[in-house]
Amino acid sequence: MKKLYFSVFIICLQLTGVAQDSAFSRQWVDTLTSPYFFGRGYTQQGMQKAAAYIRDAFKQYGLVPLTGSSYIQEFSFDVNTFPGDMEVTINNKKLMPGIDYIVFPESTGSHTQGKLQQADSVTFVNQEEKVIVTLKDKLTWSVGREEAPYTGIEVNKKALTSNPASFKIAIDNKFVKDFKAANIAAMVRGTAQPDSFIFITAHYDHLGSMGSKTFFPGANDNASGIALLMNLAHYYAMHPQKYSMGFICFAAEEAGLVGSEYFTNHPLVPLSHIRFLINTDLAGTGSEGITVVNATEFPEEFAMMNEVNDKEKLLVKINARGKAANSDHYYFTEKGVPSFFFYTQGGITAYHDVFDIAATLPLQEQEDLFKLVRGFCNKLMNE
To answer: Residue 169: which of 129, 110, 209 has the closest Cα?
Structure first.
């Protein structure tokens, strides 16, 4: 199936011939959110399949490895996964995973049933079976790095007509020691100053699956960022610049910026050679503009970005934000690399849930974001 997806994708590129064409981004988002990649996470080899797909695309576009002969930078970490059974019944009502409930990411597996005692207004417990049920207005999942001695379940309040009083669960977990992941790093060598770099980065992983049937597609977070990055990689492969253009697709961002932290501790090029790093995450909307993290840290570069936006009349607004440890730019900034992280605003509100799907992601500002990043890079290289 991977070969089929990729063949169709390359044919689309040959027909359009324009790197920033919106069909290019749409194809990437549709593909990365497909069941084949199963949430680009920790079961059914979802993250590994996505890594191989991105690596093959870099090769096809004509980029070379950032260093040596491999595009792959491997690392490992511990993670809690849910590869098997995922069944929850509350008050004799069978609930739908991802829609009616999610499990605590650190939960251990359990196949049991019993009564629940109310602990507070939203928490219900069975101490003997070590089961916790909490009521939530919105379900937002994450990745667990530890395994706890209990099973926790968050239930959407709208799924029940009365407080949880009884439960029956069948939940499998598997705690994986040293899960193998990889950053994918490529470059287009500079024509005049090849030892000076501008980096464009995005994470390709998402939350993966909760059980053997339910996965989290991660369209906005962050298939959209990868789509923009690959647009730019394809363009720069055909139009080499004065500086070397580096592209890193990070793994394990959702597990706590693990991939980018590993890269900064084991850099494939000297960090001092990076003139600027542009990280993109949540790039699928934009009706209300973008927010730039580190804008107040690097005011001169932020002014450059605004000059490009104002001149070309691209986005409705570029909001300034200060320093924040909320995506893969963070560890680079901590080690002295000038960095921006931007994310789009407006439109859909799906986030870390099963509703972050390709079909409802507008991608209406992908071309303007492409032009903004390209213009900003031009200013950086000609300042």
So the answer is: 110
Q: Do 94 and 14 reside in the same domain of the chain?
A: no
192 and 297 share a domain?
A: yes
Are 115 and 213 contained in the same domain? no
- Contacts of residue 307, Cβ cutoff 8 Å, sequence gap at least 6: 379
Q: Taken in order 78, 54, 206, 201, is the CA torsion positive or negative?
A: positive
Pair (181, 163) in one structural domain: no
Distances 204 to 3, 182, 238, 248, 260 between C-alpha atoms, Å: 19, 10, 23, 10, 12
- pTM of the predicted structure, to 2 decimals: 0.94
pLDDT tens across 80-107, in order? 999 999 999 999 999 999 999 999 999 9
- Cα separation of 37 and 49, whole Å? 6
Report the DSSP beta bridge partners of residue 279.
201, 341
Residues 223 and 360 occupy one common structural domain = yes
User: In 3-state terms, what secondary structure has residue 299?
Assistant: helix
The DSSP-derived string for 231-246 is: HHHHHHHHS--SEEEE
Range of the domain at 99: 85-171
